[in-house]
């Protein structure tokens, strides 16, 4: 968030691929380690189930390196 988050968002390349976010695996991963269990709530101010209900895909930009 804030200025840094806006700068990062404004300078990301447009995605060329959209893939399913594998939400169940991500949620399970956050709960495996006690140190990460509340990361989503602390970082985004919402429970993980809500974040992933809103954001269930991953976007990638792929370029060929010649």
Task: Describe the 3D structure.
By secondary structure, this protein is α+β, with helices and mostly antiparallel strands. It has four helices and two strands, in the order H-E-H-H-H-E.
Count the E strands: 2
**How are helices and strands ordered from N to C?**
HEHHHE
Instruction: Determine the mean pLDDT.
Output: 88
Sheet with most strands: strand arrangement = 1-2
Largest sheet: 2 strands, antiparallel
Shape: globular
Overview features:
alpha+beta, single chain, 12% strand, two-stranded antiparallel ribbon
Describe the secondary-structure layout.
Elements (H helix, E strand, L loop, with lengths): L1 H9 L6 E4 L2 H10 L6 H6 L3 H7 L2 E4 L6
Antiparallel strand pairs: 1-2
Write a brief structural summary:
The protein has 66 residues and is of the alpha+beta class. The chain has helices at residues 2-10, 23-32, 39-44, 48-54; strands at residues 17-20, 57-60.
